[in-house]
Write a structure and sequence with these properties.
4 helices, about 20% strand, alpha+beta, globular, single chain, 4 strands
Amino acid sequence: MKLNKQETRLRRAKRTRMQIRRLEATRLCIHKTPRHMYAQVTTPDGSKTLAYASTLDKELRKTLKSTGNSDAAKEVGKLIAKRALAAGIRTVAFDRSGFLYHGRIKALAEAAREVGLEF
């Protein structure tokens, strides 16, 4: 059985999410498209979004030259970390949605850590 790129990513995502569910940790979920980056902090069961940031936010759109690169991902990481800390969340589990940890995903994670979010 040969899996395509999306099926492999979803398989990795499922494995990660099962581990996070077992830990019962607040999670930082990431999603990326070629054009935009999205990040949200959700409750352990996933029923409620506690903080949200993306390249579509009005704050970021004014300052970003392009929304699909590492610089935009860094800005989203900083913004989600600030909003999570404002909501009283300091520690999260990083759910990268099956995407490999490099490029824009890595840039977002490192920017969030710099601001003070722990994972």
